């Protein structure tokens, strides 16, 4: 005869397994930020770059910052930390001294930083837009189209940059009375918008090659075949799936393009092809300081220090981002 079933009561002393809390995943961006934070040089460069941008664009708006083009002929070549009263009865304080026309050097460095940084960022944005689109299309289509598009890039590489700028500057100056040119001159300055155009139209060449190489390696991946099997169009696959995967190299090269563009603007201003007086950039200030270096070396030293420190910080930041976004470092 079978024994009746016995009910087993739960033992209150028995330990019940508790589910472990779910682990939160970490994105690639967060991992890159954590690696970047460990690079002290890159972080110091990041904060210094932010401070330079903030001071250049916000500093001139603060009260007490004089007009950079206000001249006081009786207060020429004043030393740093000098206070004086002009013939007009205006009390002035020169933090970094005055130039040969009695203009405040510190104020001109602030306003010149606006121009140099604006040219650096806007021309880089132009080159980024053109280079990413051009390189992505060339790498995705491949074949003869890719060969023809890359030969166009090679031809543009062979053209002398300075001659292009001189021709464009002369041609646009002759068309100063034309409506669109006159509007751009009034909006951005005499040649400032031309710097955006010229520098941005040349600097995209290297960006296009970088993006093309990334697209050539990515378009053979399995997720591209999966997207094609779902019936997605080629433009959608290219700009929604392939281009976002090139963000790492693009960001790194962008941070290295900004100082390169600023150097080009400084060279053009040094040669007299950049920002025209009375406006100033860091390059034109260095040019003025070089002409008067024997009599007043501060006119050269102060803008050169600011300009050099900004370029160094942007380059160090680019190196730090390159190490942080390196896919091989995520395997460590």
CATH 4th-level superfamily of the largest domain = MetI-like
Spatial sequence of strands, sheet with the most strands: 1-2
Q: Might you state the CATH topology name of the largest domain?
A: MetI-like fold
Number of strands: 2
Shape: globular
Structural class: mainly alpha
Word description of this protein:
By secondary structure, the chain is an all-alpha fold. The chain folds into 2 domains: 48-61 and 104-331, Orthogonal Bundle (MetI-like fold); 69-103, no CATH class. 64% of the residues lie in helices and 2% in strands. The chain is built from 12 helices and 2 strands. A two-stranded antiparallel sheet has the order 1-2. Strand 1 (82-85) and strand 2 form a beta hairpin. Helix 3 crosses helix 10. The relative contact order is 0.14. The mean pLDDT is 79.
Structure characteristics:
332 residues, mainly alpha, MetI-like fold, 12 helices, 2 strands, 64% helix, globular
Quick take:
The chain has 332 residues and is an all-alpha fold. The chain has helices at residues 28-37, 40-58, 105-141, 143-158, 161-174, 179-188, 192-218, 222-229, 234-242, 247-270, 282-291, 298-324; strands spanning 82-85, 91-94. It has 2 domains: 48-61 and 104-331, MetI-like (MetI-like fold, Orthogonal Bundle), CATH 1.10.3720; 69-103, no CATH class.
């Amino acid at each position: 005869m079978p024994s009746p079933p016995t009910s087993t009561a739960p033992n209150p002393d028995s330990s019940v397994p508790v589910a472990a809390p779910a682990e939160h995943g970490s994105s690639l961006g967060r991992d890159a930020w954590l690696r970047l934070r460990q690079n002290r040089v890159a972080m110091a460069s990041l904060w210094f770059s932010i401070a330079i941008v903030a001071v250049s664009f916000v500093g001139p708006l603060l009260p007490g910052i004089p007009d950079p083009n206000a001249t006081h002929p009786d207060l020429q070549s004043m030393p740093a930390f000098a206070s004086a009263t002009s013939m007009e009865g205006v009390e002035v304080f020169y933090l970094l001294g005055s130039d040969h026309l009695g203009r405040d050097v510190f104020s001109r460095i602030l306003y010149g930083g606006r121009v140099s940084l604006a040219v650096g960022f806007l021309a880089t944005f132009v080159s980024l837009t053109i280079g990413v689109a051009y390189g992505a299309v060339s790498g995705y289509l491949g074949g003869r189209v890719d060969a023809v598009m890359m030969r166009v890039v090679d031809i543009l590489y062979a053209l002398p940059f300075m001659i292009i700028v001189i021709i464009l500057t002369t041609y646009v100056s002759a068309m100063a009375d034309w409506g669109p040119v006159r509007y751009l001159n009034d909006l951005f300055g005499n040649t400032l918008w031309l710097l955006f155009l010229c520098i941005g139209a040349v600097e995209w060449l290297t960006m296009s090659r970088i993006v093309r190489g990334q697209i050539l390696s990515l378009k053979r991946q399995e997720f591209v075949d999966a997207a094609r099997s779902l019936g997605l169009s080629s433009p959608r696959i290219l700009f929604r799936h392939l281009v976002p995967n090139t963000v790492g190299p693009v960001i790194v090269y962008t941070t290295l393009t900004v100082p390169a563009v600023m150097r080009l603007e400084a060279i053009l201003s040094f040669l007299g092809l950049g920002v025209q007086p009375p406006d100033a950039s860091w390059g034109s200030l260095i040019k003025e300081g070089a002409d008067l270096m024997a009599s007043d070396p501060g006119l050269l030293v102060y803008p050169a220090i600011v300009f050099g420190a900004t370029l160094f910080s942007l380059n160090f930041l680019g190196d730090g981002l390159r190490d942080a976004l390196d896919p091989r470092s995520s395997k460590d």
